[in-house]
Specification:
alpha/beta; Nucleotidyltransferase, domain 5; 3 domains; five-stranded mixed β-sheet; two-stranded antiparallel sheet; 14 helices; 7 strands; about 55% helix; about 10% strand; globular
């Protein structure tokens, strides 16, 4: 008799259920987040399990990798796309896990991509870089605010990066203000060193893979895509062949609108969080650069801005660059602006 497993995963424990073809539970148990406990519970049903659905929470690596190594067929659940019937009065962990097993049995389970474990650390390293860059930006903004409200002079970000402790002491007379600015500068310099370490490590890793290096070089021909954005797009996309159509890739990159229509009328929006937020960020960044330095992209944004607003215009350009990047990666060809914007 075929069985279906599902795990509702939390930070320190998980709720495991196994159900049959009639959605009757043959096992329901809460366990600590220890792989040996989960494998022990599943072992009596190993021969009949058609698959195990695991929630894609922030801490799924250990569980999914361990189950796959043990020979189980694992389905990583796209939690942003799972919706239960809204009329249910009461739900808890076991009912959530049972619902995942039910969707798995019906073949309706929305699944996420299980990124290969060997390549995952490099991708996550770039995500760490993104976090550090945001923290550095926050410190630079804070430093700029200190200088502006103390001296009345607005300083650009590039000027802030070049400031020395002596210059800070000269511009800011009060010792408490100087100390605050000094702290921000010290943090910025520390973050700069760590960001550089990450970039060097990612560069060395990609050099070991000739195919990845070639694809990265092709991506850098796309307008607005530089070295860092190219690597981000490459590592976050993974095998581009997993997207059958270019529209699937655009949706995954959150480059398309989320709408709900009925009888010719818009009834609200669907789930806009489905997809990869890092790719969404990368293509918006590329669109901003393209609109700044390339005439055709700038004119496209200006036409769109006249119809909507600049934020939506940049998003529309990001969608075009996203679709172009899909074909660049899939066909292994250089970016051709005329195919995107015309002659």
């Amino acid at each position: 008799m075929p069985l279906y497993g599902a795990i509702d995963l939390h930070s320190n424990n998980n709720y495991l259920v196994v159900s049959d073809e009639k959605d009757e539970l043959v096992l329901r148990r809460r366990e600590l987040n220890l792989l040996e406990h989960v494998l022990r519970d599943l072992e009596p049903f190993a021969g009949s399990l058609m698959g195990v659905a695991v929630e894609s929470t922030y801490n799924w690596y250990w569980l999914v990798d361990g189950l796959m190594e043990a020979g189980y067929r694992v389905h990583l659940v796209n939690t942003a796309a799972v919706r239960q019937y809204e009329g249910i009065k009461y739900t808890n962990d076991w009912s959530d896990a049972r619902w995942l097993a039910h969707l798995l049995r019906l073949g309706l389970l929305p699944e996420g991509y299980i990124y290969p474990a060997a390549q995952r650390p490099v991708r996550d390293l770039l995500r760490k870089r993104s976090q550090l860059v945001r923290q550095r930006t926050a410190q630079l903004l804070s430093l700029g605010n200190i200088v502006t409200r103390t001296t009345g002079v607005r300083v650009s970000r590039s000027q802030l990066k070049e400031l020395t402790l002596e210059e800070v002491g000269q511009q800011l007379v009060q010792p408490q203000v100087t100390l605050s600015a000094d702290c921000s500068l010290q943090v910025v310099w520390t973050l700069d060193r760590q960001i550089e370490r990450i970039e060097q490590a990612v560069s060395q890793q990609l050099k070991l893979d000739a195919a990845a290096q070639q694809t990265e070089q092709l991506l850098e021909t796309v307008w607005g895509v530089g070295e860092i954005l190219g690597r981000t797009i490459l590592l976050e996309t993974g095998p581009v062949g997993r997207f059958p159509q270019v529209g699937d890739y655009s949706s995954y990159c959150r480059a398309v609108t989320s709408q709900c229509w009925s009888n010719g009328r818009q009834k609200g929006e669907n789930n806009a969080k489905c997809g990869n937020r890092y790719l969404a960020w990368a293509y918006v960044e590329a669109a901003n650069y393209a609109a700044r330095y390339y005439g055709s992209a700038q004119r496209f944004v200006e036409r769109k801005t006249a119809q909507v607003n600049r934020a939506l215009a940049i998003k529309a350009l990001a969608n075009k660059l996203c679709r172009a990047s899909y074909w660049v990666m899939k066909e292994q060809v250089k970016f051709e602006p005329t195919r995107l914007f015309g002659s």
